[in-house]
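Problem 12. The chain below contains 141 residues. Write out its predicted structure in token notation.
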Amino acid sequence: MKRFLLCLIVAGCAAPSPAPVEEPSKPEAQKPTETVAVAGLMESARADAAAGRLTNAAASLERALRLEPRNPRLWQELARVRLKQGDFTQAENLAARSSTWAGNDSALRAENWRVIAQAREAMGDGRGAQAARDNAERMAR
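Solution.
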């Protein structure tokens, strides 16, 4: 019995088993569905925000972010909703997060600084708001 187990162990170590062959995933086939879903959620959120249904707008954007967590436009839209809700700290944080995913999109980053400026102004941080406006101006150039 011991020899049998030893043979199994040695045989298992002698030849590595080949890695299972996986077919490459087809992100192209999945991406349009997610993009369509996210676009629909974004449209719904914008309509809800325009109608004053800010809780519904935030919920739609949060669902969209679960589908595309690296989408900087979704983070910015959620920041705008939080700004309208009076949650200024969260608005500032979400706009900053949007900028981390914005890459070299300077227009989007400038708009994020404008949101941050509005949030800081609303919190009574005039100096911080001015600094954010200055950053937005620099980004817009």
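Discussion. The radius of gyration is 24 Å. Students who got a different answer should revisit the alignment rule from Section 12.3.
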